[in-house]
Structure formats: C-alpha cells, structure tokens
Design goal:
Elements: E1 2-5, H1 8-20, E2 30-35, H2 42-52, E3 67-71, E4 79-84, H3 92-95, H4 99-104, E5 108-113, E6 126-132, E7 139-144
Parallel strand pairs: 2-5, 2-6, 4-5
Antiparallel strand pairs: 1-7, 3-4, 6-7
Helix pairs in contact: 1-2
Length: 145
Amino acid sequence: MNFISKNLEDTQKFAGDFISNLSQKPDSATVVGLYGNLGAGKTTLTQSVARVLGISETVTSPTFVIEKIYELTDKKFTHLIHIDAYRLEKSEELLHLGWQDIISDPHNLILIEWPERVADIMPEHIKISLKTLENETSREIEVVF
C-alpha cells in the first residue's frame, strides 16, 4: 500500500487510517518498523499515530533515551512504545531494555525507528518506509504488512 503525504494533515489522515485498520495480535506485540533516511518523517509519523491514539503529551524522538512508553486508555492497545535504535551499537543494548518482554505482550504497539540497526532481533513486523519527495514537505509512505 502506497500513500503520498503532501503535508502534516495528510500524514495525520494516514495515521488515522493505519490505526483503524490495525488489529491486535493474539500472542505478541504489534511491531511496526519505520524505515527511511534522516528527516524522512519517522518521528512525525509516530507523533501522528500518538495523536490518533489520544496521547496529549508532546511526543519527541527518543534518540538519546532509546525508548519512551505511553499509556493508552480505551484502546485495543494499552501501551504505545516508541523506540529509536539509531544510536545503538548492537542489538544487545535493546535486549537490556527488556525487549523480549515488550515484544511478547499483545497489548503493546511498538513503533521502532531504524529497525535495520537491530535486524537480528526484530520479530515479524509491519514495515513502513518513508521517502522524501521533490519538495521538502511531501513524503511517499509505503506499508508492507
């Protein structure tokens, strides 16, 4: 599935459609890998998903803290977990944050930026690739389930 986002409102619409069509897995977390170059819009997409899920606090990239966990109410998921693997040297660093427990809980929705940095421990996941188009505000968003 491909989507062209020309602005933040388009990205918000995409996030709403994506979440409304997302189903909770019965025996593990729902993991979404966000792929794309620096500035491609991974964090912006995460902010849009968070807004759709009712998170009112400011969502920023967890580049230095690696992981942020947001509690959700009245949703199919109880936690949105935002991970940025950009600064990780090796996958074991993510394991020290309780990765195995996080991915085994079906109530977790995990969005992970730079999943290719921890490819050896990534479970089966939804892949969202973001690519900047000719102007700085347009993005191509490709989803592979």
